[in-house]
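ugh finaly. both done.
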Amino acid sequence: MLTSGGGGANLSMSGVDTYLDMEGEKLRAAQKETTAKREEIMGILDAMEDKRCARLLVYRYISEFPPSWEDIADWMKRDRKTVRRWHDAALLTIEIPENNFENAP
């Protein structure tokens, strides 16, 4: 048996295994939801008319490790101020379906 630090509660190995299984299920469910949302967002960005702005939003928000504004400006071969202006304009033009907010917290 495992004993927790100071609380005196005993946890059997099967209890630990059950807990880890439950947490693993929660993690897999969250990962599945995140993947679905990412695909939905990519669909919205793909539908944008200005592909340059769509690419900028992907760089900024969809990249696994979001780059700095300076990195994005370098990749797009523009100055940071221009990239920020494009970003702000892109956020104003993006069309988000109304049903995206039905299950929002």
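ok and the 2nd:
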Amino acid sequence: MRSEVKTEYGRQELKDSKAGDEPQPQDGQNDSFLSNIQSCNQVEQWLLNNVPCLQKQDVDKYCECFVAEGFDSAKMLEVVEEEDLHFMKKSHKRTLLKMLTQMKLQ
């Protein structure tokens, strides 16, 4: 089983746990909403697909910043623009902008 744990940047990720330790949805929670961990996983995967060879600390920081700005799913990341990338290192930003431009042309 996997459970959520906070990383150095406050981002949550999955960690192995014992059976039965998984948090259960509470009353009023809707399964159609993304959990924080699902959001972070989608953002992380999107980053790794579009900016190759990122260091772990950069992935963690960028995920936290994207989610904090509301880019918390693969769908929301489709509308990211240059001014949304103010927190990224220059070379990472350029690489991502190049990939975004190519995706828009397809």
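summary for the 2nd one i guess: The chain has a mean pLDDT of 81.
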